[in-house]
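Hello, quick one for you while I still have it in my head. I'm working through a protein record and want to make sense of it properly. Would you mind checking whether the tokens look sensible for this chain? I owe you a coffee for this, so here goes:
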Amino acid sequence: MSAVLTLRRLRAFLRLLAAVLFVGTIGELVAAKHYQEPMQMVPFALCGLGLVILAREWKRPSTRTTLTLRAVMSVIALGSLLGVYAHIEGNLGFVRELHPDAAGWTLVQAALTGRDPIGASGVLAVGAALAIAATYATASEETGEVLVADSGTGPSRRPTEIGVRHAAGMDPGTAATAEGSVA
């Protein structure tokens, strides 16, 4: 399998996995009736935004849509962290209401394992990280060169094994051993 095909499949898998996490999160939010207060609508909006930008990047890939995807997914990850904070705060408030004298480890344990699950909020950050990861390596179908994004400024060329052999003066069509002799 060529490097181009492998990268294409990996990127598609990561984008699909991110989309499945966003859709699954919407289903979980509906099942948990997570729409009773205005703040509870934020994860719905973040999931919808994530799905829209994933679809746009899939349908019309370009440097601009890739950079937009990274920015939007960063916002989604920050929103996810806001949800984790809100759930921890809600759990602490609930425990303090029931046990006003609770302190120390009891409060920490209650905040992390209370009625509002903190992991549920964190799944959006995972989906965003997967989508961002899918943007960092692409391959040129014409040349077989692997294009690696460097610090968000866009793709730069990194030669493939064939490109390295060609640059070293070797015939790209031949196989070279580790010592540099032609097999």
